[in-house]
Design brief:
Blueprint: E1 6-13, E2 18-25, H1 33-48, E3 57-62, E4 68-73
Length: 77
């Protein structure tokens, strides 16, 4: 699915055979340092939270073309 900040993709961790969600910042937003900083802050903040109603963040990084991404728990529905 796609939103104002990025796209979310369904992925499967091959070694663990586990479904995950990957959120990637839109390509046209990576030239805005403030948006990139806010996206990274979202990843860092969410990774520190542990609650049944908040998705778990498993990883954060950059794609080959420099787009920030967040790997997180998949919540169906």
């Amino acid at each position: 699915s796609s939103g104002g900040w990025g796209e979310v993709f369904l992925a499967r961790h091959l070694s663990l055979n586990k479904k995950l969600a990957i959120k990637i910042l839109h390509l046209n937003l990576i030239s805005d340092p403030e948006r990139v900083k806010r996206f990274q802050a979202e990843a860092e903040s969410a990774s520190c939270l542990k609650h049944a109603n908040i998705v778990s963040v498993h990883d954060y990084g950059l794609t080959g073309d420099g787009r920030p991404f967040i790997v997180m728990e998949l919540v169906e529905g």
